[in-house]
Amino acid sequence: MARIIVGSYVVRFPLGGYLSWVLQWLVGFEQMGHDVYFVEKSAWPNSCYDPSTDVMSDDCSYGIATVNSLLARFGLQDRWCFADAAKNYYGLSRERVEEIFKSADLFVDMGTHGAWLGEAKETGIRVLVDGDPGYTQMRALAEDEDLGEYDYFYSVGRNVGTELSTVPTLGKQWRPMFDPVVVGLFPYQHIDANAPFSTVMAWQSYKPVEFNGTTYGLKDVEFVKFMDLPSRTSVPLAIAVGGDSVPTELLEGAGWRLVNPLKVTESFDAFREFIAASMGEFSVCKNFYVATNSGFFSERSAAYLASGRPVVMQDTGFSAHLPCGQGLFAVHTVDEAAAAINEIHTDYERHSKWARDIAIEYLDTSKILSRFLGELGI
C-alpha cells in the first residue's frame, strides 16, 4: 500500500464536473488499497466560488461543506485539507498535512500550480499531471512561468511530446495517460426514447493565447463549425453551456436545447443524473486541443461511456489511442457528427454496450491508475 496525495481545485470550484474529475482519482486509488489524501490551497484573494449565490469571494464554506460531504460517502471525510488565502487550514491541520507529505510515496499535482511543492520536498515522487494540454505549455511560455520541480510530467494530451502534436514541450518529457473513470460510479440506466445527446461545456473559460503567430482559443471557436447540427438529425441536442459571451439566441435559433449549467453541475449527483438522462454525448473540444492534435480525451466523456452513453466527440487525435466506430465516434465535420448520431440512434442498444465496454477496457481506474503507478515504480 502506498500513501498518495492528490492536489487539485474543488473546494474553490465545487461544481459537478470538477468534483467528478477529482473523485475518480481519489476513489480509484482508495479502491486499489492505497492510503489517499486530497489537498488544495488558495493562493490569491476571492478565489472561492459559491454556486448558490454565483459569487467569488474568500468565503470557502460552501466548497468545504460540499467536498467534505462527498468524500464522506466514500470513507474519505478525514482525508482532505484546504488552506485558504489567509492561511487558515480546514479538514486536516497544517501540522498533520505536513507530516503526511513527509511520509507520502507520491504527490500527484492536478492543478495546484505548485502551491504544495514546499510541503512535498520530502515526498517520495512528485508528478505533475497536465489536464489542459496546449494551454498549460503555451501559457507558461507566454508568461515565462516555471512549471515547478517535479520528478515526472504527465499529460492527458496523449500526443503531447510526439511528432503527432505541435504542443510545445518546454524541454520536458511528457508521459501520456487518460483521465481515469471509476466505472462502478456510473451504473447503467435505461433511458427515455426522446432523451437528447447532451454535453456540459464552457463557451469561453479563459482568454486565447498567441503562440508562434497563431492564436489558440476555446470551445467557442470550434462550436461554430457544428452550429447547424440540429438541422441534420432528428435526435434532440442539449447543451448545459456556461462561461463568457454565450450566444443564447443564436444557439436556440439553430435548434440547440439550452440547459441551466448551474443546475446540472450543482453537485456530483446532479452531474451524474444529467449524463444518465441523456442518450449520449456530442461534444466539441477546445481549439487548443484540436489545432495542436493534442490527443486529449475528456474525463466527462469517459463518464458518459461508463454510463453506457455513446460519445460523438470532435477529434483531437484521441482516435489514435481509443477504438472508434462502435460506441465512440471521432468526428471532424458536422456531416460526420450527424452521421454518427444517426447511426447510434438506429442501433442504440449495441452502441450503448460498446460504449461501456470501452470505458471498462481502456479508461477504468483499475487499468489507468495501475499502469500509472507501475510506470512510477510504486
Write the layout of secondary structure elements.
Elements: E1 3-7, H1 16-31, E2 35-41, E3 48-50, E4 55-57, H2 61-72, E5 80-83, E6 89-91, H3 94-103, E7 106-109, E8 125-130, H4 135-142, E9 152-155, E10 174-176, E11 197-202, E12 209-211, E13 214-216, H5 219-223, E14 237-242, H6 248-253, E15 257-259, H7 261-264, H8 268-276, E16 280-283, H9 287-291, H10 299-306, E17 311-314, E18 328-331, H11 334-346, H12 348-363, H13 365-375
Parallel strand pairs: 1-2, 1-7, 2-5, 7-8, 8-9, 9-10, 11-14, 11-16, 14-15, 16-17, 17-18
Antiparallel strand pairs: 3-4, 5-6, 12-13
Question: What's this model, at a glance?
Answer:
The chain has 378 residues and is α/β, with parallel strands linked by helices.
